[in-house]
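Q: Here's a chain of 264 amino acids. Please give me its 3D structure as tokens.
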Amino acid sequence: MLRPPRRSLRPILLALVLSLAGVMGGIVIGLRLQPPPPADMPEAGDAQAPAEVAPTATGTTAMPGPTTSDLAALTAQHQALRRMLDQEQARLDALTRTRLAAEAEHQARLEALARSRAAAEAQLAALQREIAASQREAATPAPRREAAQTPPPSPAPAPARLPRAEPAGGQPRVFVHHRAGSPAAAEAASALLGSLRDGGFDISELRATSAVPSQRVVRYFHADDAAAAARLAGRLGRGWAIQDFRGYEPTPSPGTLEVWVPDR
């Protein structure tokens, strides 16, 4: 932003004008206070006018007053100073207009930047909402067709009383999922392995994933694996839900069961 120029010349010019005005006023007052010339003083056109000023009665010589040329010179100087002052004022006004125009342009740029920033923040907020929605969808994948969810048994029957229905390929393969980067979740998932192996389940892999559902679930992907999923949930204990993921694609191979541990 432009700063207004320092007004250092204007006070000096004003002081000079006031000084000249004081001098002229003093000259006028001196002319009025000057005593009248003697009666016997010859006229200006008299040829016998003395070349020297006669001494007064008191013995002093009278000082000549300012002439018309002196007053004209003072007036010309006063007008010149007035013109200089007007020029300085005009230059100061021009600088002021330039400064105001620069401030207006700067303010317009600031407003344009503020509008651009608001638009960018709105786009960023929309992008963050889309990312959050994508993360929620990844955490709980939905099947392409509506799948019936079997409510958890209440209470879960003992493992010995449930039918041992298994796919034709043999024992079901169990994949245990837990939250990645969480020691507590990894420990909780590892604690389930011994109990599942004792129940006759084949633990294929212990997987760490970035997103897990909010509840403990056992998922199956084929109708023939529903009974094995129920037996697996009963083996794990109360609080485990069974989810029918037969509509999930790509569909895993038959005999695949998934255990999801939501511990953080």
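Q: Can you summarize the key feature?
A: Residues 1-32+66-139 form one domain.
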